[in-house]
Design a protein that fits this description.
With 310 residues, this protein is mainly alpha-helical. The protein contains 13 helices and no strands.
Length: 310
């Protein structure tokens, strides 16, 4: 077993665990990392690894939100179990658009769109989108503040006003998401088929535009990832096996290390993001995406050719 490859796998797990949940595109980061962190594996295994490693990140959602997602919890009464099944219905409905379009187009998208220029363009475009949407929400919040009734009777507490100003929306809890809204957010998830878009980024944008608070948009994004990423991983594994490929001890070790690290790091990343979005907007991620997109373009258009790496 190659110790250096295991260290590289741990680093990739670290990158995956952070970037899978922040709306900054794990693919964009993986393309950059792939330029500097090469592993001694086949191209078939590498393509599968980039998807299957996401299972570690997805398992962190299952752990952190086990109670909310478990309809058989003994602490839930009839209404609680019904609400949980209802939530799963919305999750499944929200995944249908991505499955219906993503499965038949998977190979086509990988062949024609999985390149640095598409990734860089998506990073920049959706970075601008995040900034524009947050500016629009800020104007809307200001308009609502002007329309708010005056007087002590209507005045919120200081803490309530601060939280309300930091994050607002007509849909302020997961239970408030309708089936129509869930399907709409799922349609935005289809955008993430373009590499560099970010699955979490596209669904969060959809949630914000459809009236969710940032916290609700982020949480529903976590839930949508479960069936989507399990399905994507299963599809990649099946394709890997159908090509007659096999995994040796080194590949199994690489996969295990990457999954475990991605799982542990994701636990911290999700906790951090859920706290962050209650007090801050997504502009910082928008600016980060724009800068990263420019870096990707600069590297592949200027640096790599100059060094003879292109």
């Amino acid at each position: 077993m190659n110790i250096i490859d295991l260290i590289k796998s741990a680093f990739l797990g670290l990158v995956e665990g952070i970037t899978e949940w922040l709306p900054i595109s794990s693919t964009g980061h993986m393309i950059l990392v792939d330029e500097f962190v090469k592993m001694d594996v086949s191209a078939e295994f590498w393509n599968m690894f980039l998807v299957v490693i996401q299972l570690g990140a997805i398992l962190s959602v299952c752990v952190l939100y086990f109670h909310q997602l478990n309809p058989f919890s003994p602490s839930k009464g009839r209404e609680g179990r019904r609400a949980t099944w209802n939530l799963w219905g919305k999750i499944v409905l929200g995944c249908i658009p991505a499955a219906a379009i993503g499965i038949p187009l998977s190979d086509f998208m990988d062949e024609h769109f999985y390149n640095s220029y598409v990734v860089a363009g998506a990073l920049i475009v959706y970075g601008i989108a995040f900034i524009a949407i947050e500016n629009w929400r800020a104007r809307k919040r200001s308009e609502l503040a002007v329309e708010r009734p005056r007087g002590a009777h209507f005045a919120p507490t200081a803490a309530g006003r601060a939280e309300q100003d930091a994050d607002f929306g007509a849909i302020s809890s997961i239970e408030d998401i309708s089936y129509k809204t869930a399907f709409g957010i799922g349609c935005f998830q289809v955008l993430s088929l373009v590499p560099g878009t970010s699955r979490s980024g596209s669904t969060i944008i959809g949630g914000l535009l459809l009236g969710c608070t940032r916290a609700v948009a982020a949480e529903f994004t976590f839930y949508l990832a479960i069936p989507v990423m399990f399905g994507a991983s299963l599809l990649k594994v099946v394709k890997f096996l159908l090509k007659g490929a096999a995994m040796g001890v080194n590949e199994w070790g690489i996969m295990a290390v990457g999954l475990v690290v991605a799982f542990v790091v994701s636990l911290a990343a999700i906790r951090w993001l859920t706290g962050f979005v209650r007090r801050h907007d997504f502009k910082v991620f928008g600016w980060y995406r724009i800068v990263l997109g420019i870096v990707v373009l600069a590297y592949f258009l200027v640096v790599a050719p100059a060094l003879g790496l292109a």
